[in-house]
Amino acid sequence: MTQRVFTLPLCGNAYIPFKGAAEQLGLEVVVPPPITNETIALGARYSPEGICLPFKVIIGNYLQAIEKGANSVVFYINSQAGSKKHGGGGGGMCRFRHYGHLQQLVMSKTGANVEFFILGEGGGLVEQVKEITGKGTWEIIRTLRVAIKKLRLIELLEELSWRFRAVEKRRGATSKALKKALTYLEGVQDFRTLDGLDPESFFCGVETVEQEPLQIGVVGEFYLLVEPASNCYVFEMLGELGVEVHRHLCLSEAVLRYPPSFILGKLMAWWLNMSIPSRAEIAEIARPYLSCSVAGHGRESVADTIRFHDAGCDGVLHLLPMGCMPEVTVRPILRKVSEDYNFPVLTLSFDELISEGAIRTRIETFVDVLRLRRERRRERHALPGS
Questions:
Q1: In the chain, which ranges are continuous DSSP H helix?
Q2: What are the boundaries of each domain within the chain?
Q3: How far apart are CA 125 and CA 120, in angstroms?
């Protein structure tokens, strides 16, 4: 029997903890090469024309990983999300819940000989991992504990990089510090070591300038929020323009809000040690504009836009793949939120044909408008009697 060599789709830097976990459980893993235009074009060649960009990118990931020796794919779907009970997270009207089987169908048409393991379907997550690895329950939970902790540290490092990049004195210093931190984390497999780390210490060598950067929140479709190559690196682009970026929806938050099971959800909340608004709280914030779930993370996009306004941000970017039903549904709702709150919202749609230059032009214009808006607001407040 041929030895299984696993791969998984890239999703930002999340491959680091999950590759480490798989290797700790005795699996051989091939990480797809970094996403490029070639990756996207390769995936688009075999994918249905009307399917969204994340699907095409993931197919490109698989094909390039197979060229590096992979013969097995692991993909996770939360089959409970989108149900009446959960109300979102990639189910309901969102096609994500069908992605595992659609990927199998597309990959079979490419002629690739690859075995699929769709986690989250047909049983509990831990039981499925036991079948793949042959390891015991507690060993899997201990390994998962390290992976989840490492994932949260990576997200904190990314959030810090968005803060430091906006005020860095030397261009590229923040990205260099982030890369060094991620390389270090990749080699750590001990929970206590991870628990004792101070993420901000990795950026102590980044020199900064005294300025008050613009504050922009980013909402939208989950994959575009966490995979930089899929959004033309807008987070870095904004930082280089002197903008501090904020994002509520991340993999840790998605896992906590839509856990694979009740017990794992409680364990993950303990490991992550983070507090997030519940599904009920998100629904209540969005209720004046959206009284029901539109699946995916559409309701989060509406609620988070309002949360960013209340937090004092200067504006919001709304990112969505072309044809994404949940985000297309909330797009006009966000326009209404923008009007009611007098709060700028820029929507950017992405497909395989979008160019970084086109996105940069719109981003730069948006930032200029926000900067002018802030200056005019300060001038009005400086007037006598204002």
A1: 15-24, 37-46, 53-67, 99-110, 125-133, 137-165, 173-186, 191-195, 222-226, 234-240, 251-257, 262-272, 279-286, 298-310, 325-341, 356-382
A2: 5-142
A3: 6
The CA-CA-CA angle for residues 104, 108, 114, to 5°, reads 75
Give the pLDDT band of residue 61 (cuts 50, 70, 90): very high
Return the pLDDT at 385: 58
Helix (H, G, I), strand (E, B) or coil at 320: strand
* pLDDT tens per residue across span 34-55: 999 999 999 999 999 889 999 9
Angle formed at CA 272 by CA 270 and CA 275, multiple of 5 degrees: 85
Angle at 249 between CA 248 and CA 253, to 5 degrees: 100
Tokens matching residue 94: 């969102």
Q: What is the pTM of this model?
A: 0.92
Each residue's pLDDT tens digit, 68-116: 999 999 998 765 554 444 444 545 557 777 888 899 999 999 999 899 9
C-alpha 219/C-alpha 297 separation (Å) is 9
User: CA-CA distance, 177 to 212, in Å (whole number)?
Assistant: 22
How, if at all, do strands 115-119 and 28-29 pair?
A: unpaired
Neighbours of 193 (CB within 10 A): 12
CA torsion sign for 226, 95, 261, 128 is: negative
Q: Edge-to-edge strands of the sheet including 72-76?
A: 28-29, 5-7, 72-76, 115-119
- The tokens describing 259, both together, are 């856990």
Q: Which CATH architecture has domain 5-142?
A: 3-Layer(aba) Sandwich (3.40)
Cα 386 from Cα 383, distance rounded (Å): 6
Location of structure tokens 């020796």? 69
d(C-alpha 135, C-alpha 133), whole Å: 5
